[in-house]
Amino acid sequence: MGRRPCCERKGLKKGPWRPEEDEILINYINKHGHGSWRSLPKLAVYTLCLNFEALWKFLFCRASPLQPIKGLISTLTGLRRCGKSCRLRWTNYLRPDIKRGPFTLDEEKLVIQLHAILGNRWAAIASQLPGRTDNEIKNLWNTHLKKRLLCMGVDPLTHEPFTSGGPTTRPRSSPATRHMAQWESARLEAEARLSKESLFFNSPPTSVKPDPDFFLRLWNSEVGESFRKLNGEAKADCRSPISQASSSTKCGSVSGVTIDVGPIAAGSSTPKSSRTEDPIMFDASFSSSSNESEDSSDTALQLLLDFPINNDMSFLEDVDTYATPPQC
DNA sequence: AACCACTTCAACCGCTTTTGG
DNA sequence: CCCAAAAGCGGTTGAAGTGGT
Question: How far is the CA of A82 from the C1' of C15 (A)?
């Protein structure tokens, strides 16, 4: 059973968007939102016609000359794009909340750190960088960060230094450290999902208050459930993220100890994660107060991001040094 | 000025996941 | 529960821009 292609209609336009097309799309979405991307192009053209007719009627108090040829106009003008193309254009370029311009140093660091945790899950990474799109981050990674890491002798896949023979093989990790990585992966995904939901309900992002029960709710949610199933082996060490966070002697809080974290188990909290099996390595100097880490997801994320990842990221400070990488 | 190689990034493609009848 | 359609996602492509010779 083959899938029907997205653009089944012949003659749909491809390639770069023209400003007029952008305008039509923006006007339509601002007015109506996007209910169905597939039907949007037709509706956008129709709305354009209706607007013109309404304006004509308002100005001249009679039916617009467009009326008899509305169908023809619709096929000749406006948004002859497939819904998929519209969605992509909107989410990657036209959305008003998109932050344009070069990435800051902090953003680049964050991308590298999140990539170490999440792998090539660009959408999940993008959810932690307000105003940045997954496409943008993916491009940043492929064009800049990956090369910079390579030039530093760091494997962009494993985030570990190359050995003399090339990329290092993944070290085996303890159940406890795997558990941490899996949990963080699941948590970040859930956080991304929650932030999406909060956006959907129009709550301003800044108004999202840290929720003290965040971990508890998450642990009791389907994410936590699937996570527990997959991690029976680690049960003895870590009972829940709460207990993990509240008891500094259990599994995570190792002060000054290098923890190497193996691959995120295939199929952790979501089936999709089986696609990405990037290893993680934390050089964890993880001595902060564990009570703080359960206070809020933001704090927890900060804690996670405060881990100095194995590779020294100081190279990012001196961008010029690596703008023209030696021998790369 | 012309050519070539390289880089960047918007857009497309195809696969997976989610949703709804 | 099943299936088809829609949405979402990551990988890849190719046009445009830039720099070097």
Answer: 21
